[in-house]
Amino acid sequence: MKILNFGSLNIDIFFRVENIVKPGETISAKSIEKRPGGKGLNQSVALSKSFENVYHAGSVGDDGIFLVDYLKSENINTKYIKKSDKLTGNAIIQVDDKGENSIVLYKGANFDNDKKFIDEVLNDFSKDDILLLQNEISSMKYLIDKAYEKGMKIVLNPSPITDEIKEFDFNKIDLLLVNEIEAKNIANKNSVDESIDYFTTTYPNINLIVTLGSKGSIFVNKNEKIKQEGIKVQSVDSTGAGDTFTGFFVSYFYQGKNVRDCLKFASLASALSVTKSGASISIPSLCDVKEFERKNV
Ligand code: RIB
């Protein structure tokens, strides 16, 4: 079994600020850092900490070659990353003293994935393989439809939410990972409980995870509903915490581990990532997660 993550690759520019800038305001940053990021790249890095066959597909410009080198250094196969004439995707990220962030995205090369390229990549994968998707690249609906035709299992983390999501057929999704806001938005409901009811009745075969920030997460499918409590840590930077959760959960889940263990493992990894600055560079190693687990039992 291989996992193909068709996802974004961004150059993250992190500004450390006291408070996130308000409209009309000019503020000074305490520091600035350029780092590898993008929900796609981050999730590949998290996956590769406990899964061997991770392939990342996507597009970068000349300015993004260091992102490909970084993925290689994390044991991720990069043969499906193509060079685009566009600038690499960029994210301007402010992180405040409470560890909260705000992000402005520039799509760039992430929107250079056309049908021909997608067909070429999917050609090398089959029904035993997993396709992981976020929502920061072009041709998402096409990717979902084509991978489904091949019988691949599709995992979707539809972040950030866009209008295009309404066009996706969630019957084709094996595992959907959403936060509270995304759950309510897609389901068009006012509460998490109503949203869960909506997903499980409308898409009876779906495996659903709703992450609840510091309150933990919930897994639901037609057989079971499991709640994982939040793990308390001192927050330094929450950027990439959701990506860390997704990567670790997907890796364990498709290795057939017990769902309760998958949820706990992903929550521990995500909590650890919040204690460090950065997105991909804050993703903990498998050893660190196991060590943290020993301290948390
Ligand atoms: O989830 C965090 C990521 O969102 C950042 O790395 C940034 O690139 C944006 O895609």
From TrEMBL:
Protein name: Ribokinase
Catalysed transformations (reactions): D-ribose + ATP = D-ribose 5-phosphate + ADP + H(+)
GO biological process terms on file: D-ribose catabolic process
Active site: D243
Source organism (scientific name): Anaerococcus vaginalis ATCC 51170
Key words, A-Z: ATP-binding, Carbohydrate metabolism, Cytoplasm, Kinase, Magnesium, Metal-binding, Nucleotide-binding, Potassium, Transferase
Cofactor(s) required for function per UniProt: Mg(2+)
Pathway where it operates: Carbohydrate metabolism; D-ribose degradation; D-ribose 5-phosphate from beta-D-ribopyranose: step 2/2
